[in-house]
Design brief:
The structure is a single chain. By secondary structure, the protein is mostly helical. It has 3 domains: about 60 residues, no CATH class; about 110 residues, Tyrosine recombinase, N-terminal domain (DNA polymerase, domain 1, Orthogonal Bundle); about 190 residues, Orthogonal Bundle (hpI Integrase, Chain A), CATH 1.10.443.10. It contains 14 helices and 8 strands. The strands form 3 sheets. It has a 3-stranded antiparallel sheet, with helices on one face. A 3-stranded antiparallel sheet has the order 4-5-8, with no helix packed on it. A hairpin with a 3-residue loop joins strand 6 and strand 7. The chain is elongated and about 110 Å long.
Amino acid sequence: MAHIEKRGKSYRIRASVGYRVDGSQVQPSMTWTPEPGMTQKQIEKELTRQAVLFDEVCKSLSAQSGHIKFSTFVDRYMEEYAATDLRHRTAVGYESLKPRIVNELGHLYLDRITPRQIKAFIAKMGKPGANMRTQAPLSPKTQRNYLSLLSSIFSYAVDMELIQDNPCTNVRPPKMDKSQKKWYTSDEAVQLLDSLESAPLKYRAFFTLAIFCGYRREEMLGFEWSDIDFANRLISVNRASLYTKERGTYTDVPKTEGSKRILKQPQIVFDVLRKLRSEQLEMRLSTGDQWKGSDRLFTTADGAPMHPNTPYAWLKKHCKANGLRFLGVHAFRHLNAALLINEGADAQTVAANLGHSQVSTTLNIYAYEFAESKAAASQAVADSLVSRLKKKAQ
């Protein structure tokens, strides 16, 4: 409530709308003078009304100018933007990051947060003890996720004209440790394919797709038989199968616009998919009315869409049983990209194959592989020229 102070024949009304960086209060004020002839009772009534109006105006202007607690605005962002404009899984992921951000920065005011404070927050996560379970630093990737959320929050504030600039723009993201990138070698892929000969057909089909085509896990789980063109050896990516605790397994659009793609794939892929379709048709006949009616390639025994975590869990057990290195499902996507690059595919081709919306994404992830491929090509040219020179000199 506004504070009222009598000053001669007038009254000063002050409102409190927050604190400055130095801790001092922000207290805009106004002066109100009673009209001649007003009784004391009329003065008190009108003075109270003026104080309420001024207090409401000041708070409104404060919110519009961005001078609001950051924790308050984070809640607004989650409700007004994340929940409505972002993909469900992205919004759920942001909700999991929210507590740490609010705990560290929530007491500050939106329009007072500086790049230095954000940089300090990100740096703190890279120190021992940041991970409450293991007491280890959070990975550079996780730190980048926090910075990405903060940048999205401040961008929304800029769009809403609450602040002029996004302070995250001047904060460099943590460098990724390139040496920690792990994916299967071509020899390991051959070993796995060999071990899959005795595996259940749906898993043999799933990991054949992963190795030879490089699809994302959610894309493969979203495949329906209408996406498979056996005659022309084409596969269309039209949807993704995802899971969150709140919604269970659900269908969504592919990750990016570039993820929607139609690609021609090797014959070996369609050979195993043809067998899978035949097996699934037999299962549908034997199941009868109990079949869930899904047209998905990868299903449970009763035809319901397969849980997104099932391939990961199965592969982990399979690798352990067969003495194979386990790196997860996504590692096959990296393997496929590396094999394409080693065979001389350019960045545009690799990006199209992987469903990256921007070629720059492909170049950033596989910079080392492109450099190695280029070096190998240059060496091959040099070897050819040297060989010709030697022959000419003889």
